[in-house]
Every structure is written in C-alpha cells, then in structure tokens.
Specification:
8-stranded parallel beta barrel, 26 strands, alpha/beta, 570 residues
Length: 570
C-alpha cells in the first residue's frame, strides 16, 4: 500500500513539474478587412463551437428569440446557417456553450445579409447579462469577418447569438470561440514582444588588422527606449520644474492636450496666438521629446467657436483654409503626425457644411502641406466599446479608405490610425481582436489618448490595457491622456500635485522598467563575438581589452529595420 502511494505521489510530482513546460496554444492574429466571396476557415477549428462550419447542417445550432433558422449552401458547396423571416433584432442562429471562470475568449464569425448591408453584433448571454463581443457591417453577396471576444467573469452556461436592428436575413458561417487562460494570454504577450519589440544583436570585436578579439570586455547600456511611450502635456509644464523633471525622465513623445487646437489659437476670429504651443514645442524639442500635432480640425459641433458656427459656407471654406495653412506651415517638419479631422466617425460638422468628402479633402491638403508627417484619423470607441457601430473596425477602415481613395491622396498620403482609448472596464480579448482587423490597413497604429475611468480597479485595468496594446505587433506608439493640472486631470492622473506617483503612475513606471534592457556585461567568445537580446532603442556600447590597452565607446540603435550584426574595432 505504501509502495502504491509512493508511486502515485512520484507520478503527481512529475506531472506538476512538467506542467510549466507545456506549450500554450498560439494566438491567431489573422483577420480580414475585405468582404470575400467565400469565408475563410474557422479559427482554431471552431474552438468550443460545435459544427462551426455547418458541414453537419444545423446540428448544435438553434433559433434564438423565437425566430426561424435554416441551413443554406452556396453554389460552390459551402454550407452556412440562416436566421430568416426576422422581425426582432435578437432573432438569430445561436449556440449554447459552457464558459470557464476568469478565462479570455477570442471570437470570430463570418457574416452576410440577404439584402443591402446591416450592422450585426455578436452577443453572449450569460448569468442574466448580455455581453457585446464585437460588431461588423455585413453585406449581401459577400462574407465579412466579425472578430471580437470577451472575458468570462464566472463559470457557467452561456449562449452566443447575433443581433441586428435591420430585419434582413442573417447568414452565419465558420464560427469560433476559443478559450485562453490568463497564463496562456500572457505567454502570447511574451512571444509577440520577443518578435516585435526585441532583436538579438551580435557584436564582432576586432583588433589590429581586423583580427577577432576573444576575451574582450563588453558592456551594453540602454540609453533611450525605441518604442514611443508618452503622455499628453498641458501648458502648466512651462512654469513647473517638478512637472518638467517628472515628465522628461519618463516619456519620449507627447501630444499637447488643448493648446494646439483651433479654439486655443484663434479664439477671436482673425486674432491668432501661438505663443503657448510655440513654448511647449521648444520645451519638448529641448528634451528630445517628439510631438504629435493635435488637432487641425475637430468634427464635433460642440467644440466649434461661436464665430465659426456663424460663418456662411464660403466664409467657412476660407477660414478652414487659413487655419490649415497657419498651423501646419508653422509646425511642418516639427511634428511626427497630425490629427487632421478629429473624431469624424462620430461627428460630421464639416461634412454637414462641405459634403461627405470634406474630411478627405482636408487630408489631401494636409499631406500637400507637410508630406513628411503621418496623417492620422483619431477616433474613440473602436477599442473601447464593441457595441458602438459608429466606430467598429470595419467602419473605421471604410472611412480611412474613403480618404485614401480621394483624388490626390492614394498611396502617397502617409496615413495612420489613431485610437484614443478612453476606457471604463476594458474588454481585453476584444481589444486584441479589433487591433488584428485594424492591422489589415497596413498603416501605423497609435494609441493616442489612453485613460481609464476612476474606480477601485483603475490601475489594474490600465496595466492590462498597456500590456495588451504594447504587445500587439501592429501598434507603433502609445500616448496616455494624463496631462497634469493643479485642479486635476481630464479623467486620470498619474501623480498627485507633489508629483508623487499614484497607483496609475506606479503602473507606468513598472512597465517602463520592464520594457527596457538591463545593462549587459560580458566577455566576447573565442571568435570575438558577443550576443545579446535587446529591446528596440538606443544603446551605449563600451568595449575594452587588456591586450589592446584601449577602450572604445560606440552608439548603437536597434529597431525593426536595423542590422543584427555590428563590428566594433578596439
């Protein structure tokens, strides 16, 4: 009996020891921004979804909301489910699933509608709650992917269905719902960071005549991060040395919170004043901090000055031309990007005055004025709210392509995606899935205004968001919307008024530390090589050797495009 017990104990210990070595299921970053004649195969073979491709007809699927469902097939033989004769938004094809506690789920499904186009939302009903997991504008005649996700707060039964306010038939195919533990999700971060944010560099140490120098002493020090991480800045920084020290010791990029906006530089018609943004730009440049231009125009009618609202169409056209020429000619070549028309998915002040292509025309003129800067579409709720149909990834990309297709823009226009990121409680799997789809535009993605609503979990949510977006390979930069004011910040501060970190500031400092390379010190091998894995950034490399009686200090920059091998002569 004791021998049997010992056997089972040894087996159990061996199993536990082997567990950390198990490989997590890799994450599938694939998505599509196109409407395709036939859907792509389901991710993860459908995950926990049964009969994901409807090859067995409606087996595993039922009607939701007292609707009618049927099986359909294309001329090519592809099979799918259909919710037909719909009279209510929630009437749909659905499937019951069992969710695991505290688990991330990534969702994907291909959708089509019987006529025209319609907004379709994925919903998971669980524990009496209705969780929005993603949305897409589905069309007739082709298939569009809805990629999203959710985090299950508790274990239990759930039901996945699809809703639309339009009464068209909804076609559904190749559905996937794949669970990932938090440990697996973190492993995806590590794998992506290793590939997208780091590079293994090989240093060749050479002496007289180019001979290898085995035993050379090598030290590598991280001087500056290569990934742009920053915060919004307020004019208060100009007169507050403590704010200056705190800010410049952390950040490499900034956006002026309000000081470059039209209502700040021309409050009274014809009386422009750039003294404040001029001073802020001088300050940023003196500390090597890059600046995003925010913004040229804002499509929200509530942000327009009374004198702008009172202008006739021709007067407004002349005023906008003056505004663009004034601000862009002043700062051309000094900013890395421009938010040309802010929030033009949710608002349409200028489209209401000039027509549906007003934004596209502004972007063309902006590119002509400052061709070296990125021209960004800055918008909210694309990542924050899966249920906001105005800003779902497909709608955002549709507006982006309208701008790029406008005569004079095309591939010459250096477009970028700006996603604000004003979060309450983040849906982490949805953030990743939305970025997957947005990445199909093939342009740089920036998180431009990240903050999190006040609450007991504010700092934890901020860390989750920052880890998620930093790890995504399509993201090129992050800016926090945390400009300091003595009377308080817009939503989220990182410090108190004495510039002592709040919990949110501690999160930022912790991640800045994690995303830096610790100093390397070692000895070149017998071939004179020294190898190190480095985060992207600028480095100081010091090499010495007793035989050469010399020490060499050299700068090194590591990024996505840089070499992997360097020669240092001692």
């Amino acid at each position: 009996m004791e021998r049997a017990s010992l056997f089972f104990l040894v087996a159990w210990v061996a199993l536990l020891s082997a567990a950390p070595m198990a490989q997590s299921l890799p994450y599938d970053y694939s998505s599509s921004s196109e409407c395709l004649p036939e859907p792509m195969e389901p991710h993860y073979d459908g995950g926990i979804i049964r009969n994901a491709d409807f090859s067995a007809g409606l087996e595993g699927w039922t009607a939701f909301g007292y609707g009618s469902v049927a099986a359909g097939a294309s001329a090519a033989g592809n099979r799918y489910g259909v919710a037909l004769n719909r009279t209510r938004p929630y009437q749909s094809v659905s499937q019951k699933v069992q969710l695991q506690n505290d688990t991330h789920y990534t969702l994907s499904a291909w959708l089509q509608v019987s006529d025209g186009s319609a907004d379709v939302r994925a919903v998971v009903k669980t524990n009496g709650n209705f969780i929005h997991a993603g949305g897409v504008e589905a069309r007739s005649g082709c298939w569009s992917i809805l990629k999203g996700g959710l985090t299950a707060a508790a274990a239990g039964p759930a039901e996945l269905y699809f809703e639309s306010n339009a009464t068209v038939d909804i076609w559904l195919d190749n559905v996937s719902l794949q669970p990932f533990s938090r440990e697996e999700w973190a492993a995806h971060h590590e794998a992506s960071i290793k590939k997208a944010r780091k590079k293994t560099v090989r240093l060749r140490t050479r002496g007289a005549g180019g001979k290898p120098m085995p035993g050379a002493q090598v030290r590598i020090e991280h001087v500056r991060s290569g990934f742009p991480l920053g915060s919004a800045m307020s004019a208060d920084i100009l007169s507050n040395p403590a704010y200056q020290r705190w800010f410049t010791s952390r950040f490499t990029v900034t956006t002026f919170e309000n000081e470059m906006k039209w209502y700040s530089t021309e409050r009274v018609q014809g009386r422009e004043d750039y003294s404040v943004p001029d001073a802020m730009l001088r300050f940023a440049k003196s500390h090597g901090i890059k600046v995003r231009g925010h913004n040229i125009f804002w499509d929200d009618p509530n942000t327009q000055m009374s004198w702008v609202k009172a202008l006739s169409g021709d007067q407004l056209r002349r005023a906008t031309a003056r505004r663009m020429k004034s601000v862009m000619s002043r700062y051309a070549g000094q900013v890395i990007a421009w938010d040309v028309v802010n929030e033009n998915l949710h608002f349409n002040f200028f489209e209401g005055k000039f027509g549906s292509e007003a934004s596209a025309a502004f972007y063309r003129r902006a590119h002509q004025t400052d061709g070296d800067a990125l021209m960004s579409m800055n918008e909210f709720n694309t990542l924050e709210q899966p249920g906001d149909f105005k800003a779902v990834p497909g709608k955002y990309l549709g507006k982006l392509w309208q701008i790029k297709d406008f005569p004079g823009n095309g591939n010459a226009a250096r477009m970028a995606i700006g996603l604000e990121g004003h979060f309450s409680e983040p849906n982490i799997p949805y953030i990743r899935a939305a970025l997957d789809t947005m990445s199909k535009a093939g342009v740089p993605i920036w998180l431009t205004e990240i903050d999190v609503a006040k609450g007991p979990n504010q700092a934890r949510h901020l860390e989750e968001i920052l880890r998620e977006v930093y790890a995504h390979p399509a993201v090129h930069g992050i800016i926090l919307w945390t400009a300091w004011h003595p009377q308080g910040c817009y939503v989220m501060c990182l410090t108190d008024n004495g510039f002592r970190n709040l919990p949110t500031g501690d999160v930022v400092d912790k991640l800045i530390g994690e995303w830096r390379t610790r100093s390397h010190a070692g000895v070149a091998d017998d071939q004179g090589y020294y190898e190190a894995e480095l985060f992207h950034g600028d480095y100081k490399v010091t090499v010495s050797h007793p035989a050469a009686n010399a020490t060499v200090v050299q700068s090194l920059s590591v990024d996505r495009e840089s070499d992997t091998e360097y020669t240092i002569h001692v």
